[in-house]
Design goal:
- Pfam families: Peptidase_S49.
- By secondary structure, the protein is an alpha/beta fold.
- It has helices at 10-56, 82-94, 112-128, 145-150, 177-183, 207-232, 250-255, 265-273, 287-310, and strands at 64-71, 98-107, 134-143, 155-158, 163-165, 247-249, 261-262, 278-280.
- The protein has a domain at 57-275: 2-enoyl-CoA Hydratase, Chain A, domain 1 (Alpha-Beta Complex), CATH 3.90.226.
- Strands 1, 2, 3, 4, 5, 6, 7 and 8 form an eight-stranded mixed beta sheet that branches.
- Strand 1 (64-71), helix 2 (82-94) and strand 2 form a beta-alpha-beta unit.
- The relative contact order is 0.13.
Length: 321
C-alpha cells in the first residue's frame, strides 16, 4: 500500500483542495461585487451631475440661438428620427430666451414618413410662434428627406460647396431569376394574396406590379414636390430638372431658388439672429440610462454566475488545443 510522507491520505488532500477552491471562488465573488459597488457609485454621481446640469435649463444662457442638429440618415431607428426632432423643436420654440431656431443639417435624407412628420411639426410650431423664425443651415449635404425638412424653414443657408436638392423618391431593387436558375436554386416562397410577393428578385419583372409600385412612388413624389413649392413659394425657379432627383451645389441651389444665401451656423446666429450664443436643443440619448442598462446586464450576469457556483452548477470548461 502506498504511504504519504506527510501522513495525509487522498481523502484529506481532496478536502484541502475543495477548501482552497471554495476560498478562491469566495474571493472572486467578493472582487466582482466590489467592482459592481464602485460602478453603482459612479452611476449615482453621474446621474446627480446629469440632472443638475439639465435642471439649469436653456433660460440660464440668456438670449440665444436654439440649434437642432439633423445629422446622418433620417430614420425611426437613427438619432435623426421624427420623435426626437419633434421633441427638440417643441423645446426650442417654447424657450422664451431663444430668439430663433436653426436646423443644422448634414444628411443625405431617409424615410419620407419621418421627414414629413418633422416638416409638419415645423409648420405647426411656426403657426404657434409666428414671431420666432426658423432657419435651415446646410453644411455638407441637405438632400432628399433632409431637404424636405429644410423647405419648412423661413430661409435656407448653404455653403457654396454644399450638395442640395435630390427631390425624388427611390426604391432600390434587383432581379436574379436567371442566376438562380443556373445555380439550381428554387424559390419556394409561399404567399396569400395575388401580389404579396411582388417585386421578388427571384421572379421575372411583372409589368402590372411594377406599374403599381411606380404609382406609389409617384404619389410620394407629388407630396414631396407640394412641400417644396409650399415652402419655397415664389423664390423657386422651376424647370424640367427641378424635381428630377438631381442635386446641385450650394451656389447653384441659390440660383435655382432652392436656397436663399451663403451662410454657416455661426454667421447666421451672429448676423441674422443677432444672438451669438448657441444652445443645442438636439435630443441626445441619456448617457446614464445607457450605463444603467449595461450595468444591469453585468449585475445580472454576475448574479447568475455566483448562483451557479453556489449551487455547484458551474459548467466545465473545455479547451481545444
Amino acid at each position: 500500500m502506498a504511504e504519504w510522507g506527510n501522513g495525509r491520505g487522498p481523502r484529506d488532500w481532496a478536502l484541502v483542495e475543495r477548501f482552497l477552491l471554495e476560498d478562491l471562488n469566495d474571493r472572486r465573488r467578493a472582487k466582482r461585487w466590489q467592482w459592481i459597488r464602485r460602478g453603482l457609485f459612479i452611476v449615482v454621481v453621474a446621474l446627480f451631475a446629469y440632472r443638475t446640469i439639465g435642471s439649469m435649463g436653456a433660460e440660464s444662457f440668456g438670449a440665444h440661438t436654439a440649434v437642432i442638429t439633423i445629422d446622418g440618415a433620417i430614420a425611426a431607428d437613427m438619432p435623426a428620427n421624427a420623435d426626437s426632432l419633434i421633441e427638440a423643436l417643441d423645446s426650442a420654440f417654447s424657450a422664451t430666451e431663444a430668439k430663433a431656431v436653426v436646423l443644422r443639417i448634414n444628411s443625405p435624407g431617409g424615410s419620407p414618413v419621418q421627414a414629413d412628420e418633422v416638416y409638419r411639426e415645423i409648420r405647426r410650431q411656426r403657426l404657434i410662434h409666428p414671431d420666432k423664425p426658423l432657419y435651415a443651415v446646410i453644411s455638407d449635404m441637405g438632400a432628399s428627406g433632409a431637404y424636405y425638412i429644410a423647405v419648412a424653414a423661413d430661409k435656407i443657408y448653404v455653403n457654396p460647396s454644399s450638395l442640395v436638392g435630390s427631390i425624388g423618391v427611390i426604391m432600390p431593387g434587383f432581379g436574379v431569376p436567371e442566376l438562380l436558375q443556373k445555380l439550381g436554386v428554387e424559390d419556394r416562397t409561399l404567399a396569400a394574396g395575388a401580389h404579396k410577393n411582388l417585386l421578388s428578385p427571384s421572379k421575372p419583372v411583372n409589368e402590372i406590379e411594377q406599374a403599381h409600385v411606380q404609382g406609389v412612388l409617384d404619389a410620394v413624389h407629388r407630396q414631396f414636390i407640394a412641400a417644396v413649392k409650399a415652402g419655397r413659394g415664389e423664390r423657386l425657379k422651376v424647370n424640367d430638372d427641378t424635381f428630377s432627383g438631381y442635386f446641385w451645389s450650394g451656389d447653384q441651389a441659390i440660383t435655382l431658388g432652392l436656397a436663399d444665401d451663403i451662410g454657416s451656423l455661426h454667421s447666421v446666429a451672429r448676423d441674422v439672429v443677432k444672438a451669438e450664443t448657441l444652445v443645442d436643443y438636439t435630443l441626445m440619448p441619456n448617457p446614464v440610462d445607457s450605463v444603467l442598462r449595461r450595468l444591469g446586464a453585468v449585475v445580472g450576469q454576475e448574479f447568475a454566475t455566483s448562483l451557479r457556483q453556489t449551487l455547484g452548477l458551474e459548467a466545465s470548461r473545455v479547451t481545444l488545443k
